[in-house]
Amino acid sequence: MAGGNRPERAALAAGELRGSLRGVDDQLVVDGKDAVCGREPSHRRRDVDGATTKDATPTARDGSKKAIVLDMLKRPDGATLPDIMSATSWQAHSVRGFISGSICKKMGLTVESFKRPDGTRAYKLAQ
Known about the structure:
The chain is α+β, with helices and mostly antiparallel strands. It has 2 domains: 1-55, no CATH class; 65-125, Arc Repressor Mutant, subunit A, CATH 1.10.10.10. The protein has helices spanning 7-14, 65-73, 81-88, 92-106, and strands at residues 21-24, 27-30, 33-34, 79-80, 111-115, 121-125. Strands 1-2-3 form a 3-stranded antiparallel β-sheet, with no helix packed on it. It has a 3-stranded antiparallel β-sheet with strand order 4-6-5. β2 and β3 form a beta hairpin.
């Protein structure tokens, strides 16, 4: 039997659920539940206190690499790519991806890129 003991999979394999299926975030959902594991899709799950996980503002733990980079970017003269690379042991593409993804997109902060008088590129948090 296709799908084992899960009726949603068996019905799906037989083509019986076509009318009641809808895709959410490229996941197959049957009657509001994930067809594979039978629970709500992850974008609807809630934390213990009732707030969705996307509502919480991301913060950095003390001493983490994220906190180190944020402290470096808060300096008045900012931080250069080699400075951040040496502080975190990351490669250049990882630093740029972290700035773009974690700081700008996830935390919603704005990072300015500028050239210092000596010609080196530096990054700092916008005021």
